[in-house]
Specification:
There is one protein chain. By secondary structure, this protein is an alpha/beta fold. The protein has 14 helices and ten strands. The strands form two sheets. The protein has an eight-stranded parallel β-sheet. A two-stranded antiparallel ribbon has the order 4-5. β1, α1 and β2 form a beta-alpha-beta unit.
Length: about 500
């Protein structure tokens, strides 16, 4: 029996470019896959990867996109039917700007480079310059329908002397800054709708929204946990004050700051829970089904500008494919009461075969233990070698801890000139072999990543991933060799020892 499915006019994939822009040729190569899976927009979080000019050129990284290359990509994406939604942070998460010497005086709190002071004229000049260049560039290619201005996780607000002199509440400062930023957008692009992350709105009472100009503004309610903590009360407040509401899930970047691979299970459950939640959603006292405007599948590359890289895009394609197919399943509404099914049943009965097809896998995939050995999707090689890295790293850590425990006895017996070479020599051998294996894996990852990223991104990624393991092994190896070389048995002929018979 066919029933009405979930109505989402926008299915958006978030491309987080923070300090790690994928090569545009690679991004263009995955557009047909995205199109086939129902994606109709890309949320491009530029941060330091937009080619800024003039007095804000220093905001751009040395590896930022070239203007002509970015123009070509946006043009190709537009022709393929994708809307490009730029995301520019304008309140919190401005580390890429506020870390610089020429802008660090604009921090709300001098010690923290995340939040900008909204009371300084220079702050608004910086934001205006950023938005102007972004808006004019995009409008020169296609009309800019939506622009995301961030506004999430403003950890420091109303703290500096200049803000406190205004004698306003945090809420007033927040909404006044929102109005100023919206005015800048409207100045350069009057028909553009502004999107904001919703988290700073969640604690606001319903009557606190009164007399606020929220026209042309739409909140994006985000929750990336496997089991949602979405508040009906917050949604109701947004419903009463905003024309539309978006939701946001995560296909990667939600497993921890240093995660290497996304958890297929966690990412799948996150999307299942969201789609069940919005299925035929009705607000209290209303009979009409509410249609959320769109879903943004976020794919964070870093938790913030100052954090290390987490899961990279090529190894997150399986998660993205799986969850886009899930959205299509709920949109089509071919199964009655699909929202009552368990996530495992949805996957096994309705999605597994299509996931195998899109990832080009000969063997059935599993949510619990995804094996890439039979898959040939673009990225399967680096996925496989990163799995090997995780196994090696875990094994090294376990063995290192075992050997480290034995170092206390080694140190004691070293002082007594009574070391057991049957213990120390195998440990040296293990250290040498493990270090060589780790370096070999590092080189494989480095070479594979060059297909997708600039060499500077690759260097940062592999150096961070392998730093701790190599440091542990090299340090342990030096210590073991020290004991071996300086041991009395090694320095003196064996005949000088006196052995006691039983």
């Amino acid at each position: 029996m066919r029933t009405l499915g979930v109505n989402l006019s926008k299915v958006v994939v978030h491309i987080d470019l923070k300090g790690s822009p994928p090569k545009l040729a690679y991004l263009e190569s995955v557009l047909p896959l995205f199109k086939d899976l129902g994606v109709n927009a890309l949320l491009m979080e530029y941060e330091d990867m937009f080619p800024y000019k003039g007095n804000i050129a220093s905001l751009s990284s040395n590896i930022c996109y070239k203007e002509h290359e970015l123009r070509q990509f946006i043009t190709a994406a537009g022709r393929a039917g994708f809307e490009i939604i730029p995301l520019i942070q304008t309140f919190g998460h401005l580390e890429h700007a506020l870390k610089l010497s020429e802008f660090n005086h604009l921090r709300e709190v001098l010690l923290y480079p995340d939040s900008i002071c909204p009371s300084k004229i220079e702050s608004m000049t910086l934001i205006k310059d950023m938005l102007k260049q972004i808006v004019l560039f995009h409008n020169s290619i296609y009309p800019l329908k939506h622009l995301h201005i961030g506004f999430d996780e403003v950890f420091h607000m109303n703290k500096c002397a200049q803000c406190r002199l205004r004698n306003e509440t945090d809420l007033d400062i927040y909404f006044n800054h929102l109005q100023k930023v919206k005015y800048i957008v409207k100045l350069w692009s009057p028909n553009t709708t502004v999107l904001i992350w919703d988290d700073m709105l969640r604690g606001i009472k319903l009557n606190d929204f009164e007399h606020r100009d929220l026209t042309n503004t739409e909140p994006v309610y985000w929750d990336y946990a496997p089991f949602l903590r979405v508040s009906h009360n917050n949604l109701y407040k947004y419903h009463k004050n905003f024309e539309n509401i978006w939701i946001a899930s995560a296909f990667k970047g939600a497993e921890g700051r240093t995660a290497t691979l996304p958890s297929l299970r966690n990412r799948f459950i996150n999307h299942v829970e969201w789609l069940k939640f919005i299925f035929h959603y009705k607000f209290g006292g209303e009979n009409k089904i509410y249609n959320f405007k769109g879903i943004i599948l976020t794919g964070w590359s870093r938790y913030s500008h100052m954090d290390p890289l987490c899961e990279i895009l090529p190894v997150s394609i399986p998660s993205l494919v799986l969850n886009l197919l899930l959205i299509k399943f709920f949109q089509e509404g071919q199964i009655e009461n699909a929202y009552l099914l368990e996530s495992s049943e949805i996957f096994n009965r309705f999605l597994k075969n299509n996931v195998n097809k899109h990832l080009q896998c000969e063997d059935d995939i599993s949510l619990e233990n995804f094996e890439t050995s039979s898959c040939t999707f673009n990225g399967h090689q680096i996925y496989s070698i990163l799995e090997q890295y995780i196994f090696q790293n875990d094994e090294i850590l376990d063995k290192f801890n075992d050997v480290k425990e034995g170092l206390f006895s080694l140190e004691y017996y070293y002082k007594l000139n009574h070391l057991n070479m049957n213990t120390i020599l195998p440990a040296i051998k293990w250290c040498n072999e493990s270090l060589l294996d780790l370096i070999a894996t590092e080189n494989k990852i480095f070479n594979l990543m060059l297909q997708y990223y600039d060499v500077l991104v690759v260097q940062e990624y592999v150096n961070y991933k392998f730093y701790d393991g190599k440091k542990k092994l090299i340090g342990l190896l030096k210590l073991l060799k020290h004991y071996y070389i300086n041991h009395t048995w090694y320095r003196n002929p064996p005949h000088r020892y006196k052995f006691h018979s039983g």
